[in-house]
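User: For a reading group we're discussing how well predicted structures match intuition. Take Protein-glutamate methylesterase/protein-glutamine glutaminase. Before you show the prediction, I'll give you the sequence so everyone sees exactly what went in.
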Amino acid sequence: MSVAFAGNSATTASREAGPLRVMIVDDSVVIRGLISRWVGAEHDMEVAASLRTGLEAVNQLERINPDVAVLDIEMPELDGISALPKLLAKKRDLVIIMASTLTRRNAEISFKALSLGAADYIPKPESTREASAADIFHHDLIQKIRHLGARLRRKSAVASPPLAPASPAPAPRSPVARPAAPAATVQAAPSGSLALRPFSNQAPKVLLIGSSTGGPQALMALVGELGPVIDRFPVLITQHMPPTFTTILAEHLARSSRRPAAEAVDGESVKPGRIYLAPGGKHMRVARNGADTVIALDDGPAVNFCKPAVDPLFISAIDIWHGNILSVILTGMGSDGMRGGKDIVAAGGNVIAQDEASSVVWGMPGAAANAGICAAILPLNQIGAKVNRLFAGDRS
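Assistant: Thanks. Here is the predicted 3D structure of Protein-glutamate methylesterase/protein-glutamine glutaminase, as structure tokens, for the group to look at:
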């Protein structure tokens, strides 16, 4: 019996041990051409197909058998949000990155796509002729493909990837090998093997949270458990996310927490009872204004390739709350938050990192864990309870 993807099992195993196969689905020939060139220039990935519609992607998925799909939202015949569940029904471990322009409608659709199984989203520049916007799109897209694809292969090395068969008796697929990491990538040690610091005896007076890839889902789950903390202490969040998307995220956080949540406004007072979210495209810091603590938004250059970035928030908070800070670093690519976390620990505060198994990408929390600054490394579903206990006076 044959299976619904090309090649015999030996060929398939050999191919999966090589470059990540990327399927590009976009009705814009310019975008397809750009992404194809970028992917083709990387040593650890290749273009598996370049398609114009979601219908083509669904109909050809078994033949192409990609690892990652970059899926546009707005396309003729079958749009991205309609194609998404059909693709995942055929290959449930397919990594799908939704691509869209920066409109409120597309931001809302991107959030819906995450709830339907998309791995991540990426905003497309309104004009590819703008060099800086194209450079950011290029950098972010390649990093998302690489890190999310590598995570897929780590999981697939343990569990055989389930591509839907064309017949009832598919041939078994060989376990796939993890591709070699790029030279610039630092591999994190497993979270269970890392040393932890004791929790500081200083009582936290503020909760700071940083997140990136996988962060929206993690944040919505976490804030739903933090009502007692939000009611009594300020909560400030930096999520790597563009404008418009942060507006929608704030609305989701308000619903999840059942507490006020909004994009922070420059100069507003920081008080208990609400969640302050860094707005897309601006760094969020805190500062003194007389006896008040206020939000200070900064339109300066990107930090750690990000704007907003976590480090500016973490570092600025030390001048206000000194060592009375609890910071949480959730799932995300890169190492943003690690430098600021070091400074928080040096001032007497604490850092909690999400563990590797529950993270979409263990970059940011892994960097903090490997730096030895964490007092706890926990699964996402245990972080809320731990935070509540710490603010209630437990220092263990």
